[in-house]
Specification:
With 119 residues, the protein is mostly helical. The protein has 2 helices and 2 strands; from the N terminus they run H-H-E-E.
Length: 119
Protein backbone atom coordinates (compact mmCIF):
# COMPACT_ATOMS: atom_id res chain seq x y z
CA UNK A 1 0.00 0.00 0.00
CA UNK A 2 2.79 2.42 0.86
CA UNK A 3 4.54 1.62 -2.38
CA UNK A 4 1.46 2.55 -4.39
CA UNK A 5 1.10 5.83 -2.50
CA UNK A 6 4.72 6.76 -3.12
CA UNK A 7 4.42 5.80 -6.77
CA UNK A 8 1.26 7.89 -7.13
CA UNK A 9 2.91 10.97 -5.56
CA UNK A 10 5.97 10.52 -7.76
CA UNK A 11 3.81 10.22 -10.86
CA UNK A 12 1.93 13.40 -9.89
CA UNK A 13 5.11 15.44 -9.27
CA UNK A 14 6.96 14.33 -12.40
CA UNK A 15 4.94 16.47 -14.89
CA UNK A 16 5.30 19.52 -12.63
CA UNK A 17 9.09 19.20 -12.65
CA UNK A 18 9.11 18.91 -16.43
CA UNK A 19 6.94 22.04 -16.77
CA UNK A 20 9.15 24.01 -14.38
CA UNK A 21 12.25 23.03 -16.32
CA UNK A 22 10.63 24.06 -19.62
CA UNK A 23 9.69 27.47 -18.18
CA UNK A 24 13.26 28.25 -17.05
CA UNK A 25 14.81 27.25 -20.38
CA UNK A 26 12.31 29.41 -22.27
CA UNK A 27 13.24 32.45 -20.13
CA UNK A 28 16.97 31.77 -20.45
CA UNK A 29 16.83 32.37 -24.20
CA UNK A 30 15.54 35.93 -23.80
CA UNK A 31 17.99 38.82 -23.85
CA UNK A 32 17.35 42.24 -22.36
CA UNK A 33 18.44 45.37 -24.18
CA UNK A 34 18.56 48.55 -22.08
CA UNK A 35 17.79 51.93 -23.63
CA UNK A 36 20.80 54.20 -24.13
CA UNK A 37 19.67 56.62 -21.40
CA UNK A 38 19.60 53.89 -18.77
CA UNK A 39 22.87 52.38 -19.96
CA UNK A 40 24.61 55.76 -19.69
CA UNK A 41 23.24 56.32 -16.19
CA UNK A 42 24.29 52.87 -15.01
CA UNK A 43 27.76 52.88 -16.53
CA UNK A 44 29.14 56.37 -17.22
CA UNK A 45 32.12 56.51 -19.56
CA UNK A 46 34.52 57.99 -17.01
CA UNK A 47 33.45 57.31 -13.42
CA UNK A 48 36.60 58.66 -11.78
CA UNK A 49 36.38 62.06 -13.45
CA UNK A 50 32.75 62.69 -12.47
CA UNK A 51 33.04 64.66 -9.22
CA UNK A 52 30.07 66.99 -9.72
CA UNK A 53 27.60 67.73 -6.92
CA UNK A 54 24.89 65.86 -8.82
CA UNK A 55 27.00 62.68 -8.79
CA UNK A 56 27.38 62.80 -5.01
CA UNK A 57 24.91 60.73 -2.99
CA UNK A 58 24.75 63.59 -0.49
CA UNK A 59 23.43 65.94 -3.20
CA UNK A 60 20.03 64.29 -2.83
CA UNK A 61 19.81 65.61 0.74
CA UNK A 62 20.81 69.20 -0.05
CA UNK A 63 18.22 71.87 -0.70
CA UNK A 64 18.12 74.89 -3.00
CA UNK A 65 20.93 77.43 -3.15
CA UNK A 66 20.99 80.24 -0.59
CA UNK A 67 20.41 83.78 -1.82
CA UNK A 68 22.59 86.85 -1.99
CA UNK A 69 21.28 88.31 1.29
CA UNK A 70 22.33 85.17 3.22
CA UNK A 71 25.16 84.95 5.72
CA UNK A 72 28.45 85.44 3.82
CA UNK A 73 29.47 81.85 4.66
CA UNK A 74 26.31 80.50 3.00
CA UNK A 75 26.02 82.62 -0.13
CA UNK A 76 26.03 80.36 -3.23
CA UNK A 77 25.89 77.27 -1.00
CA UNK A 78 23.01 74.82 -0.79
CA UNK A 79 20.78 74.40 2.25
CA UNK A 80 22.28 71.62 4.34
CA UNK A 81 25.81 72.16 3.04
CA UNK A 82 28.64 72.50 5.59
CA UNK A 83 29.73 76.04 6.45
CA UNK A 84 32.66 77.34 8.47
CA UNK A 85 31.54 78.00 12.06
CA UNK A 86 31.94 81.44 13.64
CA UNK A 87 35.18 82.09 15.56
CA UNK A 88 35.29 80.22 18.85
CA UNK A 89 32.83 77.50 17.74
CA UNK A 90 33.63 73.99 16.59
CA UNK A 91 32.11 72.06 13.61
CA UNK A 92 28.63 70.76 12.96
CA UNK A 93 27.40 73.93 11.27
CA UNK A 94 25.41 73.92 8.03
CA UNK A 95 23.57 76.49 5.94
CA UNK A 96 19.91 76.58 6.98
CA UNK A 97 16.94 78.79 6.19
CA UNK A 98 16.38 79.28 9.92
CA UNK A 99 13.53 81.78 9.86
CA UNK A 100 11.95 80.74 6.53
CA UNK A 101 12.65 84.11 4.89
CA UNK A 102 13.51 84.75 1.26
CA UNK A 103 15.92 87.31 -0.13
CA UNK A 104 14.04 90.24 -1.69
CA UNK A 105 16.48 90.55 -4.60
CA UNK A 106 16.57 86.98 -5.96
CA UNK A 107 13.80 85.21 -4.02
CA UNK A 108 16.23 82.51 -2.86
CA UNK A 109 16.26 81.34 0.79
CA UNK A 110 17.87 83.65 3.38
CA UNK A 111 20.35 81.23 5.02
CA UNK A 112 22.40 81.36 8.19
CA UNK A 113 25.38 79.24 9.25
CA UNK A 114 23.52 77.27 11.94
CA UNK A 115 23.83 74.35 14.32
CA UNK A 116 21.30 72.73 16.61
CA UNK A 117 17.53 72.60 16.41
CA UNK A 118 15.70 75.07 14.21
CA UNK A 119 13.43 77.60 15.97
Amino acid sequence: MKFRLVLLIFAALLPMAALANAATTANADQTVTLPAAITAAVAPSNCAADRSAAASPRAAFLGPYCGGCSDSKCQNHQIGQYCTPPPGYVGGFSCQNVYGNSCPVDGAPDCRCWTGPLP
